[in-house]
Write a structure and sequence with these properties.
heterodimer, A: alpha+beta, B: mainly alpha
Chain lengths: 269, 160
């Protein structure tokens, strides 16, 4: 009797969760549980990362010292260029305003720390949310390329559905339509529809079995979607499967990001 | 494990396991196999509980996992509740529990739960899923042994 009641309660919870998710909201129960679990999760995450860094630092101390010196030198160079770039940007904006073009289009990058990952669901949890301007559907990138899009948002937390998730695909609810393109420098760049295959592979489907695609080509975002800007790196083609029968060409893509290396990402708002 | 002491241990265990599941599990991945702290907690705690308590613990663990993971909470709740019930029922058969039993029951439970979960939330890539499930079963089994020993010690400790 208890078993059946609890299972029914589970279904009710699931229905409430799905209802909230369809409105791009997080239900109260989920929000409370995440808030309760977050402190211990953050602490545990810190302990594991510190231990890992300590061990890595001990093993490769010499290399890290040399790299640190090189990065400090680069930082000085960057600072001098940075000031010049800021000056040029300001004068560019002023000229645009004077000419009546308005501010230049573009996305603001909000840095975020990754403090959770669900393997079964292919979801990352970030420490930024609506208070920082994050909304559902915003693309998330790492230093190597596109990671995924924001799925649900709370005031100071958000969950990201990874690019490799089979759940990240176009649907009728206006979610970001992910269209990958081969090397934007090609003219015209062939474009196909991208979807997650499994935890480590993506599939890019072209509607032309003779699309000019080669193994090793870099896949980037096409920019056809309103929310995901053009030119973000997705990954590289590792396998091609032409199908004359269906008139398609399927390219297997190795994503640029690796989940184990994700500590800091940027939400493009 | 009964009474207030049992529920205090259960709540602490759920809290710790939930936090570790969210933030640590993916960082402890070995050859594609990752630990499932909440599942280990359900199995080991239920080895000290009856069917009813096991079910409730499983329900709470499933609800936490569903909320933290952002997946379908019903799939997690149903699989974990049934698991807690079955392990609690097994305990009721009055067999002698030890760390080897904890290993075997946890490994088997991981496989069964993952397959049930696959049925409730179908996904692509069966072979990688199978391999990851077997690896995770071993991983969870190993984690269950020290946790069982710890809970055994706590449950056997005399009341002051």
């Amino acid at each position: 009797m208890v078993l059946v009641s609890l299972c029914i309660l589970g279904v009710v919870l699931g229905t409430i969760q799905n209802g909230s998710r369809s409105q791009e909201k997080v239900d109260r129960f989920t929000s409370i549980v995440r808030s309760l679990v977050m402190p211990i999760g953050t602490l545990a995450n810190g302990i594991v990362r510190s231990t890992s860094s300590f061990v890595e630092g001990t093993i490769s101390a010499n290399r890290l010292v040399a790299e640190n010196r090189r990065l400090k030198a680069l930082e000085l160079v960057y600072a001098s260029y940075g000031e010049r770039i800021d000056e040029l940007k300001k004068s560019n904006e002023t000229l645009r305003t004077l000419q009546g073009f308005g501010p230049s289009p573009g996305k603001k990058r909000v840095p975020a720390s990754v403090y959770g990952f669900s393997i079964n669901e292919n979801r990352l949890t970030l420490n930024v949310g609506s208070n920082q301007g994050v909304t559902a559907g915003c693309p998330v990138e790492s230093s190597v390329g596109l990671v995924g899009t924001v799925e649900d948002v709370e005031p100071n937390r958000s969950q990201v559905l990874l690019l490799t998730s089979a759940g990240l695909q176009p649907n009728a609810k206006g979610k970001a339509l992910l269209i990958g393109a081969i090397d934007v420098n090609r003219n015209p760049a062939p474009a196909g529809l991208l979807r997650g295959e499994n935890a480590s592979t993506l599939t890019l489907t072209f509607m032309d079995p003779k699309a000019p695609v080669q193994i090793g080509d870099t896949i980037v975002t096409s920019g056809y979607s309103g929310k995901i800007p053009k030119g973000l790196i997705i990954g590289k083609v590792i396998q091609l499967e032409p199908s004359e029968e269906f008139g398609t060409l399927k390219a297997r893509v190795d994503p640029a990001f690796s989940i184990g290396n994700l500590e800091v990402v940027f939400v493009l708002i | 494990m009964k009474g207030v002491k049992g529920w205090v241990i259960a709540i602490i265990l759920l809290w710790l396991a939930g936090g570790c599941q969210q933030s640590v599990a993916y960082q402890l991945s070995l050859v594609g196999a990752t630990p499932d702290f909440l599942l280990v907690a359900v199995v080991v705690f239920s080895l000290f509980a009856d069917r009813r308590t096991g079910s409730i613990f499983g329900f709470l663990a499933g609800a936490i996992q569903g909320a933290v993971a952002g997946g379908h909470v019903s799939s997690y709740v149903i699989t974990r509740t049934i698991l807690g019930f079955l392990v609690g029922w097994l305990t009721g058969l009055e067999f002698e529990g030890n760390i080897v039993v904890a290993f075997v029951v946890t490994a088997a439970s991981t496989c069964i739960t993952q397959f049930a979960f696959l049925l409730l939330s179908p996904r692509g890539g069966i072979l990688p899923f199978l391999l990851a499930t077997i690896g995770s079963a071993m991983y969870n089994g190993v984690l269950a042994m020290p946790l069982y020993a710890l809970l055994k010690k706590v449950s056997d400790s005399p009341r002051r």
